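Quick one - first record:
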Amino acid sequence: MTAVQPARLTLSAAAASLIGVRFQLHGRDPATGLDCVGLCLEALSQCGCKVALPTRYGLRNSAVDHMLSAVSEQACLAPCSGPVGADEIILVRLDPIHFHLLISASGTRFIHAHASLRRIVCLRGKPPGSIIARWRINNTNSLHAGDI
């Protein structure tokens, strides 16, 4: 008899399960609140992908190069290009000192930690600001949720 692997949760489904969680700067626990980095970390974790991201940042940052290099070194994430689709982590620049991470549920729906609304929400339309970078889970290097 062959063991059945548990179905892998998609990144957008994991993120959608967090809609309504309260916003907390540097938040990493859905029970107490998440920020945009915490949202991405939690959604990735639910998909079986463990990622380490920098923790030293504020609501406003003049540069995110250290975060970009940290993300590019992660085995379970791969840069992506072309039209925006579901299950992507998207880094946008909202203004010269404000960067933000979102998770795409589709090319026109984006789940993110909204500081003003104080919760995780789903935005419809285009992602705000200009897209700086995008990543997808690299399925060849990530784990099934049941493997961790």
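second record:
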Amino acid sequence: MAREEGDQTRKAERTRAEEEEQRQRAAAEAEKAAKKREEEEEEVEKRRVAREKAVRAREAQRRAAEQERIATEQKRNEAEERLRQLKEARAEQKSRQAAQRARQEQEQAAAERLRRDREREAEQRSSHRVLRQARWERQAAARERLLRLNILLGEQRQAAPRQKRRPEAERRRQHAEAKSESTVPVRPEFPPQTQTQRSGEECDHRQLLWLWKKGRTDCDVCGKMCAKSSFCCPKCGMAVCQTCKDRLGVHVVKSPMD
């Protein structure tokens, strides 16, 4: 009995020991499984963190690349803008220089044209002056010859009537002298053309002051009719027009004769 009880006790102890061992083994396996799960979870978390870190790194790299691209593009745009402005400034400077050269060339051409025109005008004036001087001298000589001829003809025309009137004047003078012996002397009225013919003196028209005479008469030099007035020699009564008076070069007293 005691042996059986001892066997049962040992068997029970072995059973309890086996159960305890099984519990310990199960606990160890459970702990091992929990540790493994924990390790797996840690690994998963590490991989997640690594993925997120990689994503953040790639995003940061992408942003950095984008910023670098933007900065590079901005620098390139700024460089292109500076180059464009420099080209525009150079083109504008070249345009101004070309315009200035063109303006200077135009001014030089205008000055050259003006110089040539002035030289040509000076040559023409000199040539015209010489021609005018020669023409004036020829005309003056011709006028002088014509004036002398007209004066000669006028004196001849005046001499003819005076020669015709001389007997009449002599008769009137004698009649007046005869009449003065018995009556009051009467001053004879001689025509202006015959007042100086009594002594036969020649009239020097240029040395006298001529009179301005109103009324219509004929010029004794050129024969032209003076419609309103003429110029009369106070010595011989010779009447001339304005043109012949200027040609004769006589001086006039500005007092009208009626």
